[in-house]
Design a protein that fits this description.
Elements (H helix, E strand, L loop, with lengths): L3 H29 L4 H24 L12 E3 L4 H10 L2 H23 L7 H23 L11 H20 L2 H5 L1 H15 L6 H5 L18 H28 L6 H20 L5 E3 L4 H7 L4 H16 L1 H6 L5 H23 L9 H17 L9 H7 L2 H16 L6 H6 L5
Length: about 425
Amino acid sequence: MLSKQKILALGLQHVLAMYAGAVIVPLVVGGALNLNGTQMAYLIAADLFTCGLATLLQIMGSKYFGSGLPVVLGCTFTAVSPIIAIASGSNLATAYGAIIISGLFVVLAAPVYGKLLKFFPTVVTGSVVTIIGLSLIPVAMNNVAGGQGSADFGQPRNLLLALITLLVILAVNRLTTGFLRSVSVLVGLVVGTVIGYAMGIVHFSTVTTASWVSVAQPFYFGWPQFSITAIFTMIIVNIVSMVESTGVYFAVGKATDQQVEQKQIVNGLRSEGLAIMLGGLFNAFPYTAFSQNVGLLSLTRVKTRNVIFAAGGIMVVLGLLPKLAALTTVVPNAVLGGAMIVMFGSVAASGMSILSDVDLRKDGNLLIAACSIAVGLGSAVLPSMFDQLPEFARMLLQNGIVSGSLTAIILNIFLSKTQESAVPAAAAPETK
């Protein structure tokens, strides 16, 4: 039985693992829309606050809402370009009106989507989980080099710092046992940050300038306005997120050794729809299951939901206390990159473990896995190949997880002679 202190430490580890992915969305959107400092600070605080609420909604589980799986929710990067486009063409109120309605669509469409899970047999889920891990590797490597677009991108000190962080995580994971082993990523992040401070990379200016308290306000940027085009755009974004989240649920099921039921996925997607509506209400963002945290479940071997409860609570507090939230931003990108190598690699390895239960010599399984992984990884590494396509097609194909998933589903329909039950197979594959 874990003590409260240990649960909080493990929860903080999950928050740090997803923090960069969570705050990059408000930073990019706010920067593109030329928001002032006060508005940017609100956007980040509201985002963290709603991330926490969304995670708590997901983990609690009830008759109709919440998967009950140890899943962390964060804002989807797929929504960045559409939000910027909508707000630039009209205003932010129109973007948030579209987010609210699209969230309602997800709530209502979740049961219908659940009926499509028969198209996710073991070979598809294994391919999708593998794609999730592999498509995140470029993100990790960008951080290892210092962060895409940073002035010191690729500097030897960044590579060294990432290597040290990685080695610390590996050493703690292999040489220790019990609780210390379960927080190996947190130890690596702390050690890496301390070394980064000694190297002059860590700065606390954002902490000193951040305010102490910020309360998320409904309709901070004005009452929502509605546009059919904007609503349709955000619905497409959230359909993409539903496909992505399905892969995450399967990956979590594999990482936690439990059978993921169709009802859990439907209830999880309903919660995501509700979280998206909250994002529109508090002028934050659409939310989806974060694949960044799946690797931690495999790595730490701690599968209790209490840890995710703690992570959700910590994010709520960070959203209310911007100065404390700013403290978590001092972790250098290179340090995060070193930790991401382990976490994202663990997700890919989980996918390969699922595929190991599939007979790749029959029913076109080899072609399904090979083509879907290749397409998904290719889309993630080179999304610019789709720049000349219409906006709708770009949103689908530039997301490696979605393009790879669609490839796997379509090929499975045409190449596989049998349709096995998808959801139980994701947790305990039996078909050979």
